[in-house]
Write a structure and sequence with these properties.
Blueprint: H1 4-21, H2 24-31, E1 36-37, E2 40-42, E3 49-51, E4 54-56, H3 72-84, E5 104-106, H4 141-161, H5 165-194, H6 201-219, H7 227-250, H8 252-279, H9 289-294, H10 303-329
Antiparallel strand pairs: 1-4, 2-3, 4-5
Helix pairs in contact: 4-8, 5-6, 5-7, 5-8, 7-8, 8-10
The structure holds fe (ii) ion (FE2) (2 copies).
Cofactor: Fe cation
Enzyme class: oxidoreductase
Subcellular location: Mitochondrion inner membrane
């Protein structure tokens, strides 16, 4: 069995081999054969799973050496492809003589992996057994401030969206994806400044941001934002990013606690969303294709199934952020407590 790191290594070696060492004839032959099997596994906080994907070496624009080897004719062909979009007319390809083109991946059923924004080894099955009712009772002044700040933010949100939960989810995910990126960025800079390890927290927080952004990419498929909602996101992001950045600099303990409470509210919102779906007030449309691939869901999944897995993700974010705040409360730095990488 190959680990995720091993998979990526094999992948890199394969692409390098295709681009750098094969003659054109050999490379063409190699491209016609499925050459690598992937085994990935994830065992953190949930049952292990594994899957197999095939990768085909991407031979377009293979070069044997440096700039001298670049034939005028091939270069012109590649430029033409860049303009035409290659085989796929919807996708404008960049000129690839740098040898950085991504390999083509194939799913288990033989169809092409069509997502460039995430790869098969980044997908997972959501852990639906997580406790949704868990709550951190605010004890200190700072906890209470975080709790009531979140409660206060909920009031205008309820007023604006009312029971339009699809729209509400989409808009809130534009905010939810900010804290992980800001926290990850600040820990990254801290690690550089202090010449010290992060304990995995940079990766864990960036994973959270990416996971939240995938929630947004999913809900975008079922609800299209109106112009004034886009304007609202623009404004809210400008304010929230800077406020959270400052807040995290001043007190990461407070910042993580606040996100923990935000996630508790997110769980509540998605529970209300499910109720509306069950009452028939929101149509239970088929799950978007991106969701089926990202959460490895059955092909006949519906919007209700998507809301279930997203809610489970929010519960994981809640745990991670309350845990991070607790670490600070115990007078320790995050790097001293191993980060729950892959816990989402
Ligand atoms: Fe989310
Ligand atoms: Fe979340």
């Amino acid at each position: 069995m190959m680990t995720r790191g091993g998979t990526k290594l094999a992948n890199s070696v394969l692409v390098l081999a295709g681009h750098r060492f094969l003659s054109t004839a050999t490379a063409k032959a190699a491209s016609n054969t499925a050459v690598a099997g992937f085994l990935t596994e994830r065992t953190v906080g949930r049952p292990a799973w594994n899957t197999t994907f095939l990768v085909r070496s991407q031979i377009v624009g293979v070069r044997n050496g440096g700039t001298m080897a670049l034939g005028q004719k091939n270069e012109e062909e590649e430029k033409k492809k860049a303009v035409d979009g290659g085989d796929n007319k919807d996708e404008k390809k960049a000129v690839s003589y740098w040898g950085v083109e991504a390999p083509k991946l194939t799913k288990e059923d033989g169809t092409e992996w069509k997502w460039n924004c995430f790869r098969p080894w980044e997908t997972y099955k959501a852990d639906l057994s997580i406790d949704l009712k868990k709550h951190h009772a605010p004890a200190t002044f700072m906890d209470k401030l975080a709790f009531w700040t979140v409660k206060a933010l909920r009031w205008p949100t309820d007023l604006f969206f009312q029971r339009r939960y699809g729209c509400r989810a989409m808009m809130l995910e534009t905010v939810a994806a900010v804290p992980g990126m800001v926290g990850g960025l600040l820990l990254h800079c801290k690690s550089l400044r202090r010449f010290e390890h992060s304990g995995g927290w940079i990766k864990a927080l960036l994973e959270e941001a990416e996971n939240e952004r995938m929630h947004l990419m999913t809900f975008m498929e079922v609800t299209k934002p109106k112009w004034y909602e886009r304007a609202l996101v623009f404004t809210v992001q400008g304010v929230f990013f800077n406020a959270y950045f400052l807040g995290y600099l001043i007190s990461p303990k407070f910042a993580h606690r606040m996100v923990g409470y935000l996630e508790e509210e997110a769980i509540h919102s998605y529970t209300e969303f499910l109720k509306e779906l069950d009452k028939g007030n929101i149509e239970n449309v088929p799950a978007p294709a991106i969701a089926i691939d990202y959460w490895r869901m059955p092909p006949d999944s519906t919007l209700r199934d998507v809301v279930m897995v997203v809610r489970a993700d929010e519960a994981h974010h809640r745990d991670v952020n309350h845990f991070a705040s607790d670490v600070h409360y115990q007078g320790r730095e995050l790097r001293e407590a191993p980060a729950p990488i892959g816990y989402h």
